[in-house]
Design a protein that fits this description.
Length: about 280
Amino acid sequence: MPVIRLFSPDASPGPAALEQLAADVTELLGLPAGHCWVWWQRLEPGTYHRPEWRDAPDAPAAPVGFVVCKASYDKEQVGALLRLLQSRLSRMLDVPADQIFLTVQRAVSGELLVRDEVWFAHLEEPRPGAVTDLVPIGRVHTDRSDLSDDYWGDVTSVIRLDGTRFDADALLGLDTFSHLEVVFHFHRVAPEKIHTGARHPRGNPDWPRTGIFAQRAKNRPNRIGVSRCKLLKVDGLDVHVRGLDAVDGTPVLDLKPYLTQFGPREDVVQPHWVDDLMRDYY
């Protein structure tokens, strides 16, 4: 649960901007909703929050940010977090990015250290062998935000890459393909809604109980989705697609061109209930 404290001589950027910043950090680190705290405090011009740093009454104060995060985050994650904060704060406060001072403090599992206080936050260290370095490459922008299961065929979306990590070279040549494979995170599935056993697909008793790994439900243990969609065009860091079954704001973990050689080499076999389930999906 990262804690971000911001100090600036400017007026508050407002609750909406702070909430969006928290949402951006949550998506970047693949956290459940509500697991990032951000708040702002006015910094008097000419002073810094820590008096031992500097006290120059005639000098304007630069924005200062304190970030407290898990000790288990690796250098790549911390670096991505700092780059995101620097970029977002630069736009939010209209200040050059190189004039924003950010510092990171790591907290061991079970506590957050903020100034001279210890706040208990029940941080969980990753299990042995857990993957902890999946950082979204961008997010989905689309008019669709409802989580209903059907009618995705005509939905158009833009996958916008993170400009703090990528430039247009990352997409060079992608426009020579007609279809993409997109790996994304079902970020709006609450942890308590995850299934690890068997269930009726979509809760329909007319369809047989099947294990979570024998269906493509979004309530999966790792909440990872994989989809194929039509590539419409590439514009800078924006990838325009049609038929992507991901709602607005979805964190994208990877993009790949679809190659026919990676399709099945034999006839595809599937149970009859799948035809019924997928009838109106696209």
